[in-house]
Amino acid sequence: MSFFFPATAKHKYTLIALLLALFLLISLALSSVQPPAPALTPQTPAAGQFSLIAAQTQLREITRERHPVGSLAHDAVRDYLVAEIKAMGLEPQIHNSFASFEKGTASGQVQNIVVRLSGRNAALDQNKKALLLVAHYDAVPNSFGAGDDGVSVISILQTLRVLKSQAPLANDVICLLSDAEEVGLLGAAGFAKDHTWMKDVGMLLNFDNRGNAGPVLMFEPTAGNGQLITGLAQAVPGVISNSMMYEVYKALPNDTDFTVFRKQGIPGLNFAMIQNISSYHTRYDRSELISPASQQQQGAMMLALVRHFGNQDLTQLTADDHVYFSFPLLGLVHYPVGYALPIALLISALGIACFWLARKHGQVRALATLGASFALLLGLIAIGYLVQQAWNLVFKFYPAYLEMHDQDTGHFYLLGVLLLSALGFGFLQKVLNRWIRVQEWAHGAALIWIVLLLMTSARFPGASFLFAWPLCAVLLSWLLIRLRKIGEDSATYIWLIGAGSVVGIVLFSPLVLLFNIALGFHSLGVPVILFLILLSLLTPLWLWILQECRARYFLLISVVAVVVGAFATAAFHRDFPIPPQLVYVAMPQSQLSYWLTPQQAVNAQLLPMLADNPEHRTVPELFGKNMPRGEWVYWLKPAPDAGIAAPVLQLVSDQVVGDSREITLHISSPDRANHARIQVEGGSVLSARLQGLVLTKEAKEKWTTSVHAMPTEGVNLYLQIAKDQAPASMTVRVTDSFYVLPTTAKNIVAPPATSVDFVAQTISSLQIP
């Protein structure tokens, strides 16, 4: 059986050698983006070394408990970090500030930990700028915060230890262990707003993570990054980064502490590890699950960067943006974005020359080449769409996969899907070969690449390298074949088109994997389409391989990979179960108390308080009519009164000024809730301020905000509403949330934190007369 390609086996040994070379090349490309094996240094290392063992010990200490902002465990982490810094002979500050997220959705009392290491030139030059090193020490409520972002906090401690033991750098180094990043970048906002050292900052390095393994990526520089990229390449030659990440990240709504300083015009670089997203913001973000290799790489990288930029003139960092990308053995290749379009035009001219030579020798026809372009475009879009729909179908048969993001074992699935997609792509070309020749397929793909190259060079120059250099290498190999008049049936021809494919394979292989890791299998079509774009350019090589080697072998490998992936991931959800959520909610004003869970089904063993015929409905009497939470469906049963104090709302003033009413409320939390959610129902808020900070200046219906780590004395909320607002139509509702039961609680017992994600809430409302 020859499947749809009759194997000729004319070049048996060439085929074997080529496949082996491709395997080694892909292995090299993938291994180049993995962190090196960790070096287990002694507990007390030499002065100039990052100590992995010491860092692991410190990380265990700050991740013993979950420590969201406003919790007692969070205060314990703060105190431990302060003690560790003092033990180095440094004087840390606790920077207290009431800060607000720029979008007005969150505010809170923050306690940043800041420390300054003096440079040797600071006293001599008053205009000398300091290097700011940033990581956040808070965590989300259901996480231990090891990867996000305890590992980076500990790397800063280790960096301080090393720098303190050596001769000072030229510049001051300011370390900011920021608070309340997870709830709205509040710590960074507070530092930027009112800390006196902010005016001295000339550059920042921010470290945050969305996983616990894999390479530490530099994924976001500030604009005008030429000098930054040059310095990065010098300080960390093996850094994994490319300017396509920057182009993609700019289009995403994600924020880190880096965002606060970038918007203040501070140049800088943003770093993260992103592998194993299943640990991100979950109970599995624990210290023992952090990759030692990644932790070692981050610590060594941070130290190298601080040493480099700590000796640079930080007032001279503005320059043109650069196109940059990592390449094995070459390090970080970079050049000004102004070169992107001229390079694209030169490569386009090379493509036209190759097409002219092929047409001159009768190897391609213009219309057939154009038809090949359309067929390839339709093919890669169709295959990408079908792959995504097939994976969505898998979710329906096996819903547990909805929680599987990028476990390493899941990469077997990716391999199987890519091989199946490649076979489908080859089948499409084989079917149409009666009308379109191989060379026309190749030049049709080159036309697509030229269009992509010109578009990205003009609009998204940071992504242009991805299409420029693979296309250039392929075109040069074609040009050499045409000029030397090498026949397509010779081994030399095969090796030349193979050599032309090297740049594309080396650049695309890590990107396909990283896109799969970053987006997860929920967006499997994206890495598949990226892979097929490369495969289209390598058409002559791929079709030759299929011609020489029976396609059923590739089909067999793909099926085996999928089966291995299925077996390898089968135990994932037993080993890392997603716990159910349980909410205790009380509204003392209405004498209502409930147990709630938003799960699709009630686990009676883990949630016995919801066993025996619970109701399944919305709860607008608690969360407000026509409000988002009031429209969610819960399983619920009545609960006893736990006696937890509800938030207190007091009307301080209500006056008419011009065409509006100005209302001031005082809100406090007697039991010091972790956070308070404030929502306004039944009217439009024209503007709002909290503790003097502006939250919104635009009219908004169903306006909400949150206060984290509520000050003991409470907060003042100022609201501006329309003067003709109907009487008794507006209600302010405040919900206090506790992740650990306060000592005043009675009559209820929180379930074990090891099996259930628990939160207790109390609600008060105030009707505006």
Automatic annotation (TrEMBL):
Transmembrane stretches, start-end: 337-358, 370-391, 411-428, 440-458, 464-481, 493-518, 524-546, 553-572
Alphabetical list of Pfam families matching this protein: Peptidase_M28 (PF04389)
Chief localisation class: membrane
Organism of derivation: Undibacterium flavidum
Membrane topology per record: Multi-pass membrane protein
Function: May be involved in vacuolar sorting and osmoregulation.
Name the UniProt record assigns to this protein: Vacuolar membrane protease
Residue stretches in coiled coil: none
Taxon lineage: Bacteria, Pseudomonadati, Pseudomonadota, Betaproteobacteria, Burkholderiales
